[in-house]
Amino acid sequence: MDLKVHINNIHGSQMAAKINGIFTLNMQEFHFTAIAFGRIGGQNVGAKLSKITEIELEKLGYNVEEVIMTLQQNLLQGDLTLPEGLKRESFVDD
To answer: Is 21 helix (H, G, I), strand (E, B) or coil?
Structure first.
């Protein structure tokens, strides 16, 4: 699955942050929100899609759970693009 993630905005800190962004799949853009938690027990990300986005993905033949898992994996691995001026160091522990 060729899923590309772009972060639009991040609010919070290294402990917990709310993420808003888009992902591209099959040359179509979809919005998502996510909560990222760090520190104790390691990093964790929970991504959420709107019902409308889920329906659109199903119409395109995608398994919604698989898309969410891939999206979360990309977020955890840092396989994403950021808006100009936002640095990974502001929300990621290395």
So the answer is: strand
Spatial separation of the C-alpha atoms in residues 37 and 12, rounded to whole Å: 10
In 3D space, the residue among 62, 58, 34, 37 whose CA is nearest the CA of residue 48 turns out to be: 34
DSSP at 1: -
Rounded-to-integer distance, Cα 85 and Cα 27, Å: 26
E strands in 38-78: 44-48
Distance CA 36, CA 21 (A): 13
Residue 94 — very low, low, confident or very high, per pLDDT cuts 50/70/90? very low
Question: What pTM was computed for the model?
Answer: 0.85
- Spell out the domain ranges in the chain: 3-77
Rounded Cα gap, residues 18 and 11, in angstroms:
5
Using DSSP bridges, classify how beta strands 44-48 and 3-12 pair: parallel, antiparallel or unpaired: unpaired
Q: State how far the Cα of 50 lies from the Cα of 85, in Å rounded to an integer.
A: 28
